[in-house]
Design brief:
2-enoyl-CoA Hydratase, Chain A, domain 1
């Protein structure tokens, strides 16, 4: 069996694409930073996602993180070096990558063997199916950072868990353990970590054996049902608050509680 491996490197970070037996397996590998992605890595992830369709043998995408992490989302430390305009542009790049997998016209399966946080959770939710291990943790603790979720980011959560729990996760910053995430439907399947990769590959092969016409039709039909936001950002908030975001990021980098200024809502 021939395996084609492409690697895109940035410092010690890699996004790896393996193509074999109808499966395109994409692995985010940056273990020293909990697989957090830089702006360049988000760009690379988007490019790799789009390139999957160049190989007509690819029937299903498996998206995973290296080791016992999915991804911590974006590299918050990188934001500390950016202007507000650059940070906003970085979020736009991030959303482009996430939407690439959400709109990819073949099935996508998220394989989650650890924390999927912030934009990492959004990336997992963009997958059609999510398989997690007992090590999975899902959350979007953006309130400590002054990140303001726009309509598209919020929509992915609301579609799965409803408006109240979506607000709860942001209001409290709490992180869901694997069992609760599975009960709420954020994880479709929950299996042991030792069996996760084998289970994901079996699931990928099962999906790949179905009618391509049926798979494409249901993905398009479901997307039309749930994607009620007509245009990204239209009438929505930006991703970063001009006051709270710089303070939240500085507090993260300096490992201290944020000191947000009091102001009217």
């Amino acid at each position: 069996m021939k395996v084609n491996i492409k690697r895109m490197e940035e410092e010690q970070a890699k996004i790896v694409l393996q193509e074999s037996a109808g499966l395109a397996i994409i692995t985010i590998k940056r273990p020293q930073k909990r697989n957090a992605l830089t702006a360049n890595m988000w760009n690379q992830l988007s490019e790799i996602g789009q390139s999957v369709l160049e190989n007509p043998k690819n029937k299903v995408v498996l998206l995973r993180g290296w080791g016992e992490q999915f991804t911590a989302g974006s590299d918050i430390g990188e934001f500390h070096q950016m202007s507000l305009k650059e940070a906003e542009e970085s979020f736009t790049t991030m959303e482009k990558a996430i939407s690439t997998f959400e709109n990819l016209m073949i099935p996508t399966i998220g394989v989650i063997n650890g924390p999927a946080m912030g934009a990492g959770l959004e990336l997992a939710l963009a997958c059609d199916i999510r398989i997690g291990s007992e090590k999975s943790k899902l959350g979007i603790p953006v309130g400590k950072l002054g990140i303001t979720l726009n309509n598209k980011f919020a929509q992915r959560l609301v579609n799965l868990i409803g408006p109240s729990l979506t607000k709860d996760l942001v209001y409290t910053g709490r992180v869901l353990k694997a069992e609760e995430a599975h009960r709420l439907g954020m994880l479709n399947y929950l299996v042991s970590g030792d069996n996760l990769d084998r289970y994901a590959i079996r699931m990928g092969k099962l999906v790949a054996s179905q009618s391509p016409a049926s798979l494409l039709a249901i993905k398009k039909s479901v997307n039309e049902c749930v994607n009620s936001v007509p245009k990204l950002w239209e009438g929505s908030t930006p991703f970063v608050d001009q006051q709270d975001f710089p303070e939240g990021v500085a507090a993260f980098v300096e490992k201290r509680p944020p000191r947000f200024a009091n102001r009217k809502m």
